[in-house]
Design goal:
globular, 41% helix, 298 residues
C-alpha cells in the first residue's frame, strides 16, 4: 500500500459512484443505495470505478457510504456476511485499479454519516438526537471491518455537524488508516448550522490528513477553502455535487450543472489539493477537470 498522495501535485478524486451505477441501469432506491450492489452486482461496481479511473481519477471511493451492520440487518443479512460485503467494497475498488497497469491508484473507504443509514435525508440536517459516544459506537465497528481490507484512506464524508465529526475522529484511534474529513455545508456553515471554522478545527487530530467539503453546491466550495486555509494546517479536499437541484415531488433533477473545469482551477489556485465530484458528477466531468488541472498552461 503506497502512502496516500498529499503535498505534491493535485490529486483527482472520482465522481458520483451511485450516479454512474444508475446510468448503467441500476435502481438504487433501496435504503442500502449503492451498497446493495455489493451483494447483487459486484462486477458493476468494478466497472463503474474503472470508468472513473479511465477518466483520470487517481482515487476510487468505495460503495460503502450507506453500508452498516444495522442497514444490512434490516435486509436480513447477518453480521458475518455484512462484514464480508464491507470488505468487498475495498477489494472491488482495488480490482478496478488494474485498468491501467503500472499506474498506482488509491482507494478511499467511504464512511457515510449516521443519517445515511437512516435513509431519510437526515444527513443533510444532522442533529440526530444521539450523543457523541453513541455516534462513535455506531461508526467504530464498520470502520474496524473496512480497515481490515487496508484502504489507503478513509473518506469520512458528507458529515452534517461537528458532533458527528468529533465522533468519527474519535473512532479513528488505533485503526492505522489515515482519513480525510469532509462536511456537507450550506454557505459558510455546516448543515446543522455550526460555523465552518469550528467544524474544520476538528481536523487537527493526528489521524486526519485532509479536511474540506463534499455533497455541497459548487458555489459554496471556494469560500469553504478560504476558511479551511486560515483555520487548519491540513490539506484541503473538495468534491461538490453538480449543482443541480432535486425536486422531491416530481422525483427528478432540475436545473443545469454548475460544475466546471474553470471552477476546479479556482479551487486548486485557492489551495485545494484533492479535487473531484459527488452526486451527478459523471466520468466526462472528471475527465474535463483532470485535463484542466493537469494542463501546464491552465
Amino acid at each position: 500500500m503506497n502512502a496516500f498522495p498529499l503535498g505534491g501535485a493535485t490529486t483527482i478524486l472520482d465522481g458520483g459512484l451511485a450516479t454512474e451505477l444508475e446510468a448503467r441501469g441500476h435502481d438504487l432506491s433501496d435504503a442500502l443505495w449503492s451498497a446493495r450492489l455489493l451483494a447483487d452486482a459486484p462486477e458493476e461496481i468494478v466497472a463503474a470505478h474503472a470508468t472513473f479511473f479511465r477518466a483520470g481519477a487517481d482515487v476510487a471511493t468505495t460503495a460503502s457510504y450507506q453500508a452498516s451492520f444495522e442497514g444490512f440487518a434490516a435486509r436480513g443479512i447477518d453480521r458475518g456476511d455484512a462484514a464480508a460485503l464491507m470488505r468487498r467494497s475495498v477489494e472491488l475498488a482495488r480490482l478496478a485499479g488494474d485498468v491501467e497497469p503500472g499506474r498506482h491508484r488509491w482507494v478511499a473507504a467511504s464512511i457515510g454519516p449516521y443519517g445515511a443509514m437512516l435513509a431519510d435525508g437526515s444527513e443533510y440536517r444532522g442533529r440526530y438526537g444521539r450523543t457523541r459516544r453513541e455516534l462513535r459506537d455506531f461508526h467504530r465497528p464498520r470502520m474496524e471491518v473496512l480497515a481490515e481490507s487496508r484502504p489507503d484512506v478513509f473518506a469520512l464524508e458528507t458529515v452534517p455537524d461537528v458532533d458527528e465529526a468529533e465522533a468519527l475522529v474519535d473512532a479513528l484511534d488505533g485503526l492505522d488508516v489515515p482519513a480525510w474529513l469532509s462536511y456537507t455545508v450550506d454557505g459558510d456553515r455546516t448543515r446543522a448550522g455550526q460555523p465552518l471554522a469550528e467544524a474544520f478545527a476538528v481536523a487537527e487530530h493526528d489521524g486526519v490528513v485532509a479536511v474540506g467539503v463534499n455533497c455541497s453546491a459548487p458555489d459554496d466550495v471556494l469560500p469553504a477553502i478560504e476558511i479551511a486555509r486560515v483555520t487548519t494546517t491540513k490539506p484541503v479536499v473538495v468534491y461538490p455535487n453538480s449543482g443541480e437541484g432535486w425536486d422531491a415531488q416530481r422525483q427528478a433533477w432540475t436545473g443545469e450543472s454548475r460544475l466546471s473545469p474553470s471552477l476546479a482551477r479556482s479551487w486548486r489556485d485557492a489551495g485545494a489539493q484533492l479535487i473531484g465530484g459527488c452526486c451527478r458528477v459523471r466520468p466526462d466531468d472528471i475527465s474535463a477537470i483532470a485535463e484542466a488541472l493537469l494542463d501546464p498552461e491552465g
